[in-house]
Design goal:
Layout (H helix, E strand, L loop, with lengths): L1 H11 L14 H12 L17 H15 L4 H12 L12 H26 L13 H12 L1
């Protein structure tokens, strides 16, 4: 009965690229592998996790995650191993620390600087006084009077 419920639960989930030969016999390890795979980026497909990607490299990463779990690594050790090997780009949600902190802060900081610069510019800008038109000469006044009297 339990296997039937597990099968129905798997059928109700979206189709993943995980091949049957990749699935671990231990359901607990397989569940951990799936959880880890959801947070790992396919290095070929960019913003797709390795669980959903059909790329060969994604398959290799899925197998590597499962190998590390079978070897007894914790989830944190598996992630640390992959980050050491492929860099933080392999994470779909990179950490906001170290060098990445600059990237996380740079966008909002540049916006604040731009808004501050615009505010200072607008406050210091002096309104331009309109130049008063030259008064009409006597000939122009006479011609204007003629036009208006018609």
């Amino acid at each position: 009965m339990r296997r039937l419920l597990l099968l129905l639960a798997l059928l109700a989930t979206p189709v993943f690229a995980v091949q049957p030969d990749e699935i671990l016999d231990d359901p607990a390890l397989e569940a951990r592998a799936r959880d880890l795979s959801q947070g790992l980026r396919c290095l070929v497909c960019r913003n797709e996790n390795i669980d959903e990607s059909n790329a060969g490299l994604a398959r290799d990463l899925r197998l590597l995650v499962r190998e590390r779990l079978v070897a007894g690594d914790s989830d944190a050790e598996v992630i640390a191993y992959l980050v050491d090997r492929y860099g933080e780009y392999v994470l779909l949600q990179p950490t906001a620390s170290g060098e990445n902190l600059i990237l996380w802060i740079a966008g909002p900081a540049m916006l604040v600087i731009a808004l501050g610069t615009a505010a200072v510019y607008l406050r210091r800008r002096k309104p331009v006084a309109e130049a008063a038109p030259d008064p009409l000469s006597e000939a122009e006044k006479k011609r204007l009077k003629e036009i208006l009297d018609k």
